[in-house]
Specification:
The chain is an all-alpha fold. It is built from 20 helices and no strands. Helix 5 runs antiparallel to helix 6 and helix 15 packs antiparallel against helix 18. The two termini are 62 Å apart.
Length: 511
């Protein structure tokens, strides 16, 4: 056996105390790890705290502490009457609140605006909550039915016909415009001198051909115009036109969807939709003249801001999707047209678009066809925003790998199904921040409509400053603070909801 030396160590002294571990959780840990973890962060934290101190404290003092909360006129917001330095003059906001919301909308009819706001909230909230069912029906009601109901609620008026009458009137106007254009070309050719006799003859021939095209279109739509005349001569043109339109549209949908082989669902859905339209027409009395007409020149305040922004946002999305797909099309004509359209509308400022839509658009429409001033602004804003949305959506389309489309083609899906079910949903999910950024910018840019005599929220505020009954040193700042809070509430709400949607749709990308 070998001798094994067994060694043992026994400490004779106590182990010295070690410092406590650095706390990295809680409020103290947050300060240590996020705000004061380096000299640079310490300087930035101190500078930010000073900046907030010099901004928030005076703002809170102005809006709340030194503010005047009661009074009937400007005397309540004067320092010599208040006994202290006066901040915000909130009695001015209370006195002008209805003007900020409704503009010059007639007071007895303002229930129509309130009802429109309530309907919009009832239809929009279920769309924003992911877990609620029946999203398809709800989306159809909000994007298709609600705009028509809101128009007749806010503007008033009734119906003199329905689909057949509208289609016949549009086609007749189009044919008449072509015939007038041909006559104008013929007159221009006849006015040319002898030195340009050949050009004049060619122009007269071209004008005659165009005029004959208009005449041919008149003969082509003669059965439709005859049917419209017969409907208008009846005792109840709206209901007869609705029934005829429902029969024609439902039959076409039933036939295009394969008839009885595809089931009766398209037919029943179409008939149910027209039945719902009939109920709305009966409830609102549209066949009897409807509600009293309120001219759009009387609209103002938050009403105009919401109408312009919501219409621009909703209408710009299909325009942007169509232009984005057109710019990526393999057909040269569609691609060139989409590219030219996008570059043209992106190359001009929104003010120019509003001026063009307000003062020059009536020069390009057929004779006798009048476009409302607010409608002109809505058309211009929708096209302008659609051009910007197209580039945002095109960026999302370029982010989709080619293998997605190739796999869909291998499964036998058509281009429409591939785009609508596979490519476009992924593209829109990628560009949610860019889309919402455009929506927020459009919501704030609605203040530019005041340049074309449409008094939105900011324009109505500026108009209220001319009231001498509320002329105080702080009225101006109070009004802009109030409108700024409204704009911030809407924009911040859109921003936070977009983050929620982005996190929910991109859950598979989280680390």
């Amino acid at each position: 056996m070998s001798d094994v030396t067994v060694s043992a160590f026994v400490r004779q002294d106590l182990v010295p105390e070690r410092p406590a571990p650095v706390k990295t959780t809680g409020w103290v840990g947050f300060l240590r790890t996020r705000l004061f973890n380096s000299p640079t962060n310490i300087l930035i934290t101190i500078a930010s705290a000073l900046l907030l101190w010099f901004i928030l404290v005076p703002a809170i003092k102005f809006l709340l502490i030194d503010a005047v909360w009661g009074g009937k006129d400007r005397t309540a917001c004067l320092a010599e009457n208040a006994g202290h330095p006066v901040g915000a003059c909130w009695p001015f906001i209370r006195a002008k609140f209805s003007q900020f919301i409704y503009g010059f909308y007639p007071e007895p009819e303002r229930w129509r605006v309130n009802l429109t706001f309530v309907l919009a909230a009832i239809l929009l909230l279920p769309l924003l909550i992911p877990r609620l069912p029946a999203k398809g029906i709800n989306a159809g009601l909000f994007f298709l039915a609600f705009p028509a109901v809101a128009f007749f609620l806010l503007h008033g008026g009734g119906l003199e016909g329905f689909g057949v009458s509208w289609t016949a009137g549009f086609l007749s106007g189009f044919a008449s415009s072509i015939a007038e254009a041909g006559s104008a070309l013929s007159r221009a050719g006849a006015s040319l001198g002898e030195s340009t006799a050949l050009a004049g003859s060619l122009l007269k021939l071209l004008g005659w051909l165009v005029a004959q095209l208009g005449v041919a279109l008149h003969y082509l739509i003669a059965p439709l115009t005859w049917l419209r005349d017969q409907i208008q001569m009846s005792g109840r043109p709206v209901w007869i036109d609705l029934a005829v339109t429902a029969a024609i549209v439902s039959t076409l949908l039933f036939w295009l969807n394969g008839g009885t082989r595809a089931g009766w669902r398209p037919l029943t859905t179409s008939l149910a939709t027209f039945a719902g339209l009939g109920i709305v027409i009966a409830m609102m009395g549209l066949d009897r003249g409807g509600l009293p007409v309120v001219d759009t020149r009387l609209w103002g305040g938050l009403l105009v801001t919401l109408v312009v922004s919501v219409t621009g946002i909703v209408a710009s999305m299909p325009v942007g999707i169509a232009l984005a797909l057109g710019r990526r099309s393999t057909i040269p004509l569609i691609r060139i047209f989409s590219t030219a359209f996008i570059e043209f509308w992106r190359g001009v400022p929104l003010i120019t678009v509003l001026f063009f839509a307000t003062y020059m658009l009536p020069l390009f429409v057929p004779t006798g066809f009048n476009v409302d001033g607010l409608m002109r602004a809505l058309i211009g804003i929708a096209l302008f925003a659609g051009a910007y949305q197209a580039e945002v959506i095109r960026g999302g389309l370029q982010a989709i790998p080619r293998g997605q489309g190739e796999a869909a083609s291998a499964l036998g899906l058509s281009w429409w199904k591939t785009t609508g079910l596979i490519v476009m949903p992924q593209a829109l999910r990628h560009v949610i921040p860019g889309l919402v950024n455009s929506f927020i910018a459009l919501f704030k840019d609605t203040s530019l409509v005041s340049i074309v005599a449409l008094f939105d929220l900011l324009g109505q505020l500026r108009a209220s400053f001319s009231d001498p009954a509320w002329a105080t040193p702080t009225t101006l700042f109070t009004g802009f603070a109030f409108t700024g809070l409204i704009y911030f509430s809407f924009c911040f709400g859109m921003s936070r909801y977009s983050l929620f949607v982005e996190n929910r749709l991109n859950a598979h990308r989280r680390n």
